[in-house]
Each structure stands twice: as structure tokens, then as C-alpha cells.
Amino acid sequence: MSRDLQQLIKRLSFRQLQVFQRVYQLKGYRKAAESLGLTQPAVSSQINKLELALGQPLFEYIGRTLYCTEAGERLAQCITSMFADIANLQNDLSALKGDLSGDLNIVAVTSAQPVVPYLVKSFSAQFPSIKVNVNIVNRASALERLTKNRDELTIMAMVPNDRPLTVLPFLDNELIPILSPDFMIPGHSIVTAQRFLQQPLILREKGSGSRLAFEQHCLQSRLSYASHIEFGSNDAVKHAVIAGLGVAVVPKLSVLPELTLGLIKTLPIKGFPLRRSWCLVHPKGKNLTPVAQAFVDYIQQNLAVINHHFQS
């Protein structure tokens, strides 16, 4: 270790780095002070000490707007990496003691919302010291985040097969035809798939997993269809069906309460339900934290329990 580096380490403190990171994230001294429970002069003092230690200005005001300098941007990258390593170290040490703790960051696609809370509840009951953070996004965002390795684990159906991923299927994802009890389909009592799709059809937006599964089925079964209305969530599609705007094909788990209450109904149509799987996904070769590995192990060890819960 060089003398210069030794001197720099002596002048730096974790508190200075924490204060810098909060100012950087919130883009303001006052907001950072409020977030950290400090006074604004105390925040300014910590930043000044850090700038003196590094010999570089980290922030500059242009007018009333705070900007980060090039040196500040480089420091922000270093701090993010360093704090992540420290968090991993804490998790590793906890794992060695047999007491897992820390944060688990999961991304789930929108249509997985009925599934995720049950998984989190059961996992948290077994590991109460782990804080679970779930980010709900659409499929396009989930794929982008997966490509950039931004998250620990992703929950989705319709996993792409054009990239190296580790995939753990854990629950059937049935897509069923639904309609309002008052919606009449003219013709014979037996409704074919093609006649069902000739009704005003309500679809998810292009790119969603549910839409993709539906499109693949129609292509393979040579079924034609035309979109009547498109919505950005299964919840919106469900309410459009309840309102009598048309028919739809949705994940069964997203409409179980409405089926029970008789607000919507399903029909016995040949070729349905479409069967896919909910999967736990992460990039192949990714070094999972002990916390993330614990969640993977929990899912793998409780496949029968999870499927029984959603079938009952």
C-alpha cells in the first residue's frame, strides 16, 4: 500500500461517504440533511472535509442547481460498488453464523402480482431478519433489467430462450377465457375457440407475457383474432370484461375472486386453459448473495406446498 493511499484512508470516513452518496442521490444538501437527520451545515461540513481529503471539488452550483463534477461521478460509482461489497460481506458473515439478514431485491412482472405476496409472506415467516423489496414492472422493463443484471432475482412467465439464464419453474400459470355472465355469444351451445375469438376481444398491450402466450397459441392453433381494446394490466382487462366490453384470455390467478363471486365466468373451450409456468430467473453464472440463494432454495424446497396453495 502506497504512502499516498495510506494518508487518504486516514482522512476518509464512512460517514463522509454516506453523506456524499445521499447528496448525490437526492441532488441537494437540504434534502440529504432531512433524510439523514442532520442539519444542512453538518452536511456541508462533511462534503467539505471529503473534498479536502480528495483534493477535488465534488459538487458545484450553477445558478440554484446542484451539479456533480467528474470527480464526484467517479466517487459515486466507487461508493456504490464499495457499499454493495460491504452489504455482501455482512450477509456472508450472517450466513456463517446461521442467521441470515439483509435485503432481498426481487423484480416481478405485473401479472405476477397475485403470486408474489404469498411467496414473500411464507419466506419472511421463515427468515424474519431479511427485508424483501419487490419492484413490479412490465415485461419489457423486466427483460431490460435482466439484461443489465440490475436485480438479484426476477419472477416472470414466458422466459426468453435467446439468452443464458438460470430458470426455476415453480407454479403453473393457466390462461383461461373469460366473459361477463350477461355476455351472450350467438350460435350453438358449444363455443369453439375461433367463435370465442370472433367476439370483441380485449387484450393486454403488445410485449406483455400474457399477450405473447396468447399470440403463440393462436399461431400454433391457426386461430385468427382481432384486437377490440388493449389495456396495460390484467386488472384493467378484468374490469373491462366485467363491464361487458368484450371477452378476454387472462391468467386464472388474476381473476379467482371474481370467478368465485360470479362477476365473470369461464367457458369449457377446446385448447384452453393455456398452460405456462411462473419462473424464478437470474442470469446464468450470477453469484447470488446468501439471501438470494436462500430464497431460491426456499422456492425449490416448497414447490409442492406452493402449487397446493394456489390449487386449493
* Bulk shape: elongated
Q: If you compute it from the alpha carbons, what radius of gyration comes out, rounded to the nearest whole angstrom?
A: 26 Å
The CATH topology of the largest domain: D-Maltodextrin-Binding Protein, domain 2
- CATH architecture term of the largest domain: 3-Layer(aba) Sandwich
Number of helices: 13
For the report, how would you describe the main beta sheet? 9 strands, mixed
Instruction: Tell how many strands the DSSP assignment holds.
Output: 11
- The portion of residues forming beta strands comes to 15-25%
Distance between the termini: 62 Å
Order of helices and strands: HHHHEEHEHEHEEHEHEHEHEEHH
- Class derived from helix and strand content: alpha/beta
Number of domains: 3
Low-confidence stretches: none
Q: Please give the share of residues in helix.
A: 40-55%
CATH class of the largest domain: Alpha Beta
On the 0 to 100 scale, the average pLDDT is 88
